[in-house]
Amino acid sequence: MEPTPKVIRHFHPVLSARALGTRPVRVEVAGRAYALFRDGTGQPAALADACPHRFAPLSKGTVRADGRLQCPYHGWRFDAQGRGSNPSQPELRHCDARSFQVVERYGYLWLAERDTPLSAMPDMGEEGYVFGGAFSTHFAAPLHVSLDNFSEDEHTPYVHTRLGWDDPNAGRVEFEARNLEDRTEVHYRAPQRPAPIMAVLGVRDGDFFQNDWVTRFDPVRSQYTICWVAPDGSPRPFITRANIFFVPETARTTRLHVFSFLRTEQPLLRPLLPVAARAAMALTWWEVRDDARFITTVADTPYSHKGMRLDRFDAPLVHQRRLLERIYYGAGPKMTGAVVPLTREAPGG
């Protein structure tokens, strides 16, 4: 992958906060490496993972007692702002390393350029929800393949075994999609397959599964809101929300960071939310794991959809390529139309 430094103008979750202790940790975003460490006050910091001297990886160094990160090769040391010094030639100037902003939220460390405003932190839409936890999963596939997989539920009967519908109900799926200037919106509704584990969230046989999601590109992320409805139309007690961030690490790998939430409209059940939210997160973890296990099968899918016979469930895919390039990578002209017509087949050109 050609390094794409512009993507760090967006905040990306990159590491669980508890994973960063007294030793530096290397993370990658879009082909560039960063050395994360905690300074003398315990605050997280990030530098480009290349010492300005001879490009040795700073993530292989140590954090000194004064909180500065020391290069493992010649001992150059750097503070959280990247200000560097050479112990062998103290008078040498211009020894600084490039530094980045790190924000700790939801138990994770979020990386961005120094001048990226805090207002650019992605909105989790957590109002009224209880946070159940977060986890990360490695996908051995490029960003576009990982994103396409999570942009349709047509594969649900064949890749998953808990959420959603099964093969006999594949023809009973209600589907809608909208391609907008800065996002895509998708709606699915279908009979929930039999799965005893779903009883934990008050789901019963015969219920309908409903998944509504929005995908945005600043950074690349999808927010899935899932609920269940009884055959008579009455809602089941819990609504889950999973915010999934797709972070490209290299040209061949993507890291998914998932933040899980749960809410209920039934006051009597609210005391149970902390426990139920953990159960909902565990269920989300199983579903993402199913995708991660399968994704290697399609990891070599080309970036272009040219030649593919796309169906109605693939409506967001082509448009999302444009948004990925324009918003995430910062390339191409700004679109002027508010709504883009849905596409059923890949363009021929």
SSE arrangement:
Elements: E1 12-16, E2 25-29, E3 32-38, E4 44-48, E5 62-63, E6 69-70, E7 77-78, E8 84-85, E9 99-105, E10 108-112, E11 130-139, H1 143-149, H2 156-159, E12 174-180, E13 184-191, E14 208-217, E15 220-229, E16 238-248, E17 254-264, H3 273-294, H4 315-328, E18 339-340
Antiparallel strand pairs: 1-10, 2-3, 3-4, 4-9, 5-6, 6-7, 7-8, 9-10, 11-17, 12-13, 12-18, 13-14, 14-15, 15-16, 16-17
Short description:
The protein is of the alpha+beta class. It contains four helices and 18 strands. Strand 15 and strand 16 (238-248) form a beta hairpin.
Question: How does this model look, in words?
Answer:
- It is a single chain.
- The protein is α+β, with helices and mostly antiparallel strands and 349 residues long.
- The protein folds into 2 domains: 5-120, Rieske [2Fe-2S] iron-sulphur domain (Rieske Iron-sulfur Protein); 130-328, Alpha-Beta Complex (Naphthalene 1,2-dioxygenase Alpha Subunit, Chain A, domain 1).
- It contains 4 helices and 18 strands.
- It has helices at residues 143-149, 156-159, 273-294, 315-328; strands at residues 12-16, 25-29, 32-38, 44-48, 62-63, 69-70, 77-78, 84-85, 99-105, 108-112, 130-139, 174-180, 184-191, 208-217, 220-229, 238-248, 254-264, 339-340.
- An 8-stranded antiparallel β-sheet has the order 11-17-16-15-14-13-12-18. A 6-stranded antiparallel β-sheet has the order 1-10-9-4-3-2, with no helix packed on it.
- Strand 3 and strand 4 form a beta hairpin.
- It is elongated, with a radius of gyration of 22 Å.
- Residues 333-349 have low confidence and may be disordered.
- Pfam families: Rieske (PF00355).
- This is Rieske 2Fe-2S domain-containing protein.
- GO terms for molecular function: 2 iron, 2 sulfur cluster binding; metal ion binding; oxidoreductase activity.
- Keywords: 2Fe-2S, Iron, Iron-sulfur, Metal-binding, Oxidoreductase.
- Residues 11-111 form the Rieske domain.
